[in-house]
Design goal:
Strand content: 5-15%
Radius of gyration: 19 Å
Number of domains: 1
CATH topology: TIM Barrel
Shape: globular
Length: 325
């Protein structure tokens, strides 16, 4: 809790026993989309123990959990991806059912660089209406080769229309990259994250997407990927009002970057996000894990108490309208 408000983390990933990743690998390597997942509630619950303990240590009351982006496997053939997506979402729903007071579901979508997003609409609707999810992850480069159209393109319109109809946000979170220029960099998917997020932000800001879909809400992870280095009146900075459409999470582990991001994006556009469990395993100088973000935000002197309450709680409730905590 923060100032008697629940701390809502909009950027969490599912915890599973190793059987699950093995199951997905078997689906792909054996070309068996109908392979039955065999994970008991006991195994699934055991995988949540460390997750819940970590949430408590990071003072997270409620977490929106989605797929592990590096395991979304959007590069697989569409018929396999549809099966991978469905089994992933069903397992997220089971995790939420085990701890409905702590977890809320975010969907994986059956994206493919070779298809437009019409095929994503039905799964998004299923996840929202049948599984009770409050939004979905979107990979701006599903094939990992920068071949899919940018997020301003009509390629995305079927998904935008369905998300607007259902009143659920789409969260931009890239995944694996097959760009040979960065293949020598360990964990290069992290570099792909901020490259693709920053590109997505500018494509959305410089297009007519929010004119065509005025009630569409998009959340870009990791503070939008990168900072703008020009003043707001520069010719390539879009001079539009995105206050009702474009939002960010504050999942950044460098204190200086996080402070600058909140100042640049604006308090009303920022929500609390940790990406726990995920990439935040490094240890800070004070001994905290890097994904223990709440104390970092709390100590930012330019933020008022009300600003912090917005970031930790109110903004998430404003953006994720189906979220009830």
């Amino acid at each position: 809790m923060y100032q008697n408000h629940k701390v809502i983390d909009v950027h969490g990933h599912m915890s599973t026993p190793p059987h699950f990743r093995g199951h997905l690998g078997g689906m792909v390597s054996l070309n068996t989309p109908n392979r039955k997942l065999d994970i008991s509630d006991e195994l699934l619950e055991n995988a949540q123990k460390a997750h819940l303990k970590g949430m408590d240590e990071r003072k997270i009351d409620v977490q929106l959990i989605g797929p592990r982006p590096v395991a979304m496997w959007h590069w697989t053939r569409p018929f396999l991806q549809a099966a991978i997506c469905r089994v992933t979402n069903d397992l997220i729903a089971r995790i939420v059912k085990l701890h409905p007071d702590r977890f809320v579901g975010m969907a994986q979508l059956p994206q493919s660089a070779s298809l437009d997003t019409k095929n994503c609409a039905a799964e998004l609707e299923r996840c929202v209406k049948e599984l009770g999810f409050v939004g979905a992850y979107v990979n701006p480069d599903p094939g990992g080769k920068r071949e899919a159209p940018g997020m301003h393109d009509t390629y995305w319109h079927p998904l935008y229309a369905k998300a607007q109809e259902l009143d659920v946000p789409l969260m931009v979170h890239p995944s694996t990259s097959y760009d040979p220029r960065i293949e020598v960099i360990p964990h290069n998917y992290q570099m792909n994250n901020y490259i693709e997020e920053f590109i997505a932000m500018h494509l959305l800001q410089h297009s007519n997407v929010f004119e065509l879909f005025p009630r569409l809400k998009i959340v870009i992870c990791h503070c939008g990927g990168a900072l703008n280095r020009f003043i707001p009146t520069d010719h390539h900075i879009a001079q539009k009002d995105f206050s009702k459409n474009l939002f960010y999470d504050c999942c950044a582990y460098d204190d200086v970057f996080l402070e600058a991001s909140i100042k640049q994006r604006g308090v009303d556009q920022m929500m609390f996000g940790t990406e726990f469990p995920g990439s935040g395993g490094a240890v800070r100088e004070d001994g905290r894990p890097s994904d223990d973000v709440l104390p970092t935000v709390d100590k930012l002197g330019f933020l008022s108490t009300e600003d912090k309450v917005k970031i930790f709680n109110k903004n998430a409730l404003k953006v994720f309208t189906k979220l009830k905590v």
